[in-house]
Amino acid sequence: MDEQSATTEGQSLGTRIVNIFSSPSEAFEGIVTMESKTSLWLVPMVVAILLAVVFSFVITSNETLKGQIVDMQAKRMQQMVDEGKITQEQADRQQEAMESMGALFVVFGSIGAIVVICLLYFGGTLVLWLIGKFAMKAAHGYSTYLAMYGLASWIAVLGSVVSMLMMVRLGSMYATPSLALAVYPDYDPLNQMHFLYSKLELFSLWETVVIGIGLSKLTGKPTGVGIGYSFGVLILITLISYLFSFGL
Fold first, then answer.
1. Residues with Cβ within 8 Å of residue 95, at least 6 apart in sequence
2. How many Å apart are CA 8 and CA 23, to the nearest integer?
């Protein structure tokens, strides 16, 4: 191992976090040969989970934000009633349960967030590993891709903090750093275009670019190739989310 490789592999976690924002390519240096990569993904995942718990508590404590979630749930229930998927009685019961959850909202919201975060980390890494192995012909193990994803996810962590602050400051669940800001006073969660606007989110796009840089760094392929595959995954996830939300 030459001197430069030893230096990059020996970066502290703090240095890598700084680099992921300022110089992503350097942040990924040396992770392939690191003996232990656990901290690179476990620390950001734990931080993301803690933020999700705090977020659930903030929403519960803020009557405006909580009311918007209840209203959104009511609209979805009414839509299902109109489509004949559930009865009005079933919708009323679910709505009453939602309104009376109180502290349980934090519990169930936190549990749901933990499940989603784990799926994103481990499922997202699986997709990246498959791309690296079969499309980009790289022989690195799953743990290497998990470390790469974990480093890139610090951008999503920052995005979560910014989104939470914006929602509280502007008093809207839909006030996120995305194109949805253009319609956020009148944002309709059942409007398909509004949904797509919300997916054009600054930090998500930024993270996607950084993941693409990481893919290229691990596989030795051109940066554009890695970014292309990364955006392909983002588009696929958005499409699945769209189909799930609107049942098309």
1. 70, 73, 74, 77
2. 13
SS (H, E, C) the chain: CCHHHHHHHCCCHHHHHHHHHHCHHHHCCCCCCCCCCHHHHHHHHHHHHHHHHHHHHHHHHCHHHHHHHHHHHHHHHHHHHHCCCCCHHHHHHHHHHHHCCCHHHHHHHHHHHHHHHHHHHHHHHHHHHHHHHHHCCCCCCHHHHHHHHHHHCHHHHHHHHHHHHHHHHHCCCCCCCEHHHHCHHHCCCCCHHHHHHHHCEHHHHHHHHHHHHHHHHHHCCCHHHHHHHHHHHHHHHHHHHHHHHHCC
pTM of the model: 0.91
Task: Name the residue type at position 235.
Answer: I
Q: Are the beta carbons of 226 and 216 closer than 8 angstroms?
A: yes
Spatial distance between the Cα atoms of 6 and 160, rounded to a whole number of angstroms? 34
Question: Residue 157 half-sphere exposure, CB side, CA atoms within 13 Å?
Answer: 21
The C-alpha torsion from 193 through 241 and 234 to 145, rounded to 10°, is 160
- pLDDT per position as a tens digit, 91-144: 888 878 776 666 677 788 889 999 999 999 999 999 999 999 999 999 999 999
Torsion of CA 47, 48, 50, 52, to 10 degrees: 160
What are the two backbone dihedrals, phi and then psi, of residue 218, each rounded to the nearest 5 degrees? -75, -35
